[in-house]
Amino acid sequence: MNFSDKLKFLRKQNQFTQKNLADQLHVSRKTVSSWESGRNYPDIKTIVKISTIYDIPIDRLLKDNNIVNYYDDKIHKGKTHEKLQKIFFYLTSIIIFFGYIELYEPDGFHIPLIGGLVIINAIIINIFVLRQHFFQNKNTTITLLLLFTIILIFNVIFGIPKKFLDILLTNRNNDDFILGSISGRLLFILSITICTTIEIVWIYLKYQFIKNRRLKK
């Protein structure tokens, strides 16, 4: 008997409706229906709860090649995702480092294309990181926005060097140049602020993860 059929059999054997089981597991009835139809599988914590509710050993519940393959695939994808996160973290760190050098322009130092890389990096972070991981919880969102605001204020105050202002003053009669320069500068500051904010959050989360793992040992 495969996992989905086993779930359905155990539920009926215990005279539960899908709604009864869903309420005990704190999920929706549609979620239970997706498990029983084989469209989806519960996570490990939920499987432990199911085994407790039905008083059946977990190994008996999981004796199904499909679900074993499902979790093997999930573990593999998780490891791949973790590797990609590390690569992206290090690349972002390098881009931020050179981005701030470009922002403050020490002794007129200039790095071609770094502004574009910072902006592209910020767009990627906004699409793939912020939406998926940081805007799901109200408290997390507030903390993130507060940190972002502090870094943005700092970058606006210190990220407009005298050399940039002198260039604007020299071209004060060229409205298009001034508008383009200010817009580009603000976009660059906004982008590097997004990158820096997420990088700080990542470092903090990594620290918390390592700390919790040590405490468990």
Automatic annotation (TrEMBL):
<keyword id="KW-1133">Transmembrane helix</keyword>
<feature type="domain" description="HTH cro/C1-type">
    <location>
        <begin position="7"/>
        <end position="61"/>
    </location>
</feature>
<dbReference type="InterPro" id="IPR001387">
    <property type="entry name" value="Cro/C1-type_HTH"/>
</dbReference>
<dbReference type="InterPro" id="IPR010982">
    <property type="entry name" value="Lambda_DNA-bd_dom_sf"/>
</dbReference>
<feature type="transmembrane region" description="Helical">
    <location>
        <begin position="87"/>
        <end position="103"/>
    </location>
</feature>
<keyword id="KW-0238">DNA-binding</keyword>
<dbReference type="GO" id="GO:0003677">
    <property type="term" value="F:DNA binding"/>
</dbReference>
<keyword id="KW-0472">Membrane</keyword>
<dbReference type="Pfam" id="PF01381">
    <property type="entry name" value="HTH_3"/>
</dbReference>
<keyword id="KW-0812">Transmembrane</keyword>
<feature type="transmembrane region" description="Helical">
    <location>
        <begin position="109"/>
        <end position="130"/>
    </location>
</feature>
<protein>
    <submittedName>
        <fullName>Transcriptional regulator</fullName>
    </submittedName>
</protein>
<feature type="transmembrane region" description="Helical">
    <location>
        <begin position="182"/>
        <end position="205"/>
    </location>
</feature>
<feature type="transmembrane region" description="Helical">
    <location>
        <begin position="142"/>
        <end position="162"/>
    </location>
</feature>
